[in-house]
Predict the 3D structure of the following.
Amino acid sequence: MIGRGDLSVNTVVVGPTSVEFISGVSSMTNTTDYTPPKVWIWNKANGGQFANINRPISGPTHEKALAVGRHPLQLYSLGTPNGVKVTVMLEELLALGHSGAEYDAWLINIREGDQFGSGFVSVNPNSKIPALMDRSGPTPIRIFESGAILIYLAEKFGAFLPTDVAARAECLSWLMWQMGSAPYLGGGFGHFYAYAPFKIEYAIDRFAMEVKRQLDVLDRRLAESDYLGGTEYTIADIAVWPWYGALAKGLVYDAAEFLQVDSYKNVQRWTDTVAARPAVKRGRMVNRTYGDPASQLHERHDASDFDTKTQDKVARPK
Ligand SMILES: N[C@@H](CCC(=O)N[C@@H](CS)C(=O)NCC(=O)O)C(=O)O
């Protein structure tokens, strides 16, 4: 058993026998007899959740045009943390009175491979939600990567991104922190703790340590200011909350006890403050396909949809 905090991140544990060779720290029993071949080969049946949508190549797998609604902004997304960032931002802009932020939110079912349709790939060549088309001008503009979408919308509407140079730098720093950090939480910790076909102590230890370090980074920042960027609520909070707020409330990966998330008191306080905003409550419902049917608005084409089109109200086909 390796003491947590001792293991060098550069240590590679492979080979057929138990491992004693770990940069100067205690040894652990190897959990795999896998030796990488000279050339990696795509094994489609590698198991684990999402194995059916993972591919080592990009580009479309099939022809499928995207639907286009009546609003200036067309969002193609799903209610995952990355998707929620954008729907919260759009609802916040609408709450401020920016009618130009009216949007149609279309559902992209990533488990069914919708992200590999030709229309979606033309909006995001990286085949991941969220993707946005701004059709308000003479030439449609595509924006992909949730951080880029938040900056685009903040600049377009002059909101949630401070204009003061120092405050703007702080806001963008935390936004980029989120974009760089969340893959360790989702693709690293979440994958190995919750989704991998078997538990690997080395991987779970490595990523649990990193996620706890990230929570501590946030907790210390939120001990010194109300919001991540400073005194104002900004796109930095909008980006971080769907990931680390959800983690802090035990809503992702069922890891609240394992990571002792209650101990991050400032993260808890900030999470509750952000969650209480009406626009956040609406934004997290859009494109959501799990949980209480009353919290799921699969597609959003009008503000009234929140009252009339949630899954508990949509008539089920007989
Ligand atoms: N860095 C991207 C990450 C987007 C992302 O990973 N999206 C996931 C859902 S949260 C996705 O679409 N996965 C589909 C796939 O990997 O095929 C962003 O922030 O927009």
